[in-house]
Amino acid sequence: MNMVVTGATSFLGAAMVKRLLTLGHVVYAVIRPGSANRKALPEEADGLMVIEMELEQLDQLAGVIRQSCDCFFHFGWDGSGSANREKRQIQQKNVMDSMKALKGARALGCRRFLFSGSQAEYGQCREAMKEGLACAPVSEYGIAKAEFYRQAREQCRIWREEAKGQPEAAMEYVHARIFSVYGPGDHPWSLVNSCLDTFLNGGHMELGACTQLWNFLYLDDLVEGLLALMFYPGELAEDGLYNIAGASTETRPLRQYVEEMHRLCGGRGDFAYGKLPPNAEGPANLIPDITRIQTTTGWMPKISFQEGICRIIEEKRY
């Protein structure tokens, strides 16, 4: 099939492009003009078409891709790093640009549009995060992701109404609320990479309180979960919402993750809690419920935190 992936050089985007190529699909990978991360994608690969385009131009994709496409993965989003999560102007521009991506996908004839939402949409929770839970985001990043969900869902509803009698003209919207993901290719300043690089070199790591409940999901498992949604042969949930996170057995205090990484690095280096302030979302608990995607598609994460960390350590060593 013909696939479009925006944000194709990002941590998630590059992994998705590579996986789609191994499955034999044609992939239109949309990247920024002159992207410094172009190296995240293969130099040459059968089925890979790289398109340089700004996010605000995504409604014009049909003028570049001269054939219809089946599926659209939208990962392009500015200001995902902690420094920009509170900048309203940047985050609200993402909403407008993503609506252009939605229109671009429809012009290409895509049957499904999958967006990378975030657990930040839920806000601070002390209970299990189920898709039906009312959202109360505290960061501009979370607010913008939730606002795009509202606008995109309504726009797709309008298009479905217009396409009555022509079901092939309708486009299904899928909003994947992604929790904390780790794996090869992640930012060097992520918690996992920071801890591993510090411990492997025998250094000292300063951390926040790390008392909140957390949940990690390995990158390969995330990609398979998104594919399970995109390729699901039946009808998905009417609201389009699906949490994607690690298994419930992976939800535990963040300190336990830090201490497990320290152990897997041979106990080298040391660390101290309570030295850093909380991030833009505050000391939020992550208590994801993945019952819906599991029940619908049969997807379940396969890679434990220990196995995932051992894979990354092996890659760092060689």
Task: Give your account of this protein's structure.
The protein is an alpha/beta fold. The protein is built from eight helices and 13 strands. The protein has helices at residues 11-22, 88-107, 140-162, 191-200, 219-230, 254-264, 291-297, 305-317; strands at residues 2-6, 26-31, 48-52, 71-74, 112-118, 172-178, 180-182, 204-206, 213-214, 216-218, 241-244, 252-253, 270-272. The strands form four sheets. It has a seven-stranded parallel β-sheet, with helices on both faces. Strands 7-10 form a two-stranded parallel sheet. It has a two-stranded parallel ribbon with strand order 8-13. Strand 1 (2-6), helix 1 and strand 2 (26-31) form a beta-alpha-beta unit. Helix 2 runs parallel beside helix 3 (140-162) and helix 6 (254-264) packs across helix 8.
- The proportion of residues in beta strands is 15-25%
Number of strands: 13
Helicity level: 25-40%
- Major β-sheet profile: 7 strands, parallel
Low-confidence stretches: none
Order of helices and strands: EHEEEHEHEEHEEEHEEHEHH
Largest beta sheet: strand ordering:
3-2-1-4-5-6-11
Rg result: 20 Å
Class from helix and strand fractions: alpha/beta
Number of helices: 8
Distance between the termini: 35 Å
List the helices and strands and how they pair.
Elements: E1 2-6, H1 11-22, E2 26-31, E3 48-52, E4 71-74, H2 88-107, E5 112-118, H3 140-162, E6 172-178, E7 180-182, H4 191-200, E8 204-206, E9 213-214, E10 216-218, H5 219-230, E11 241-244, E12 252-253, H6 254-264, E13 270-272, H7 291-297, H8 305-317
Parallel strand pairs: 1-2, 1-4, 2-3, 4-5, 5-6, 6-11, 7-10, 8-13
Antiparallel strand pairs: 9-12
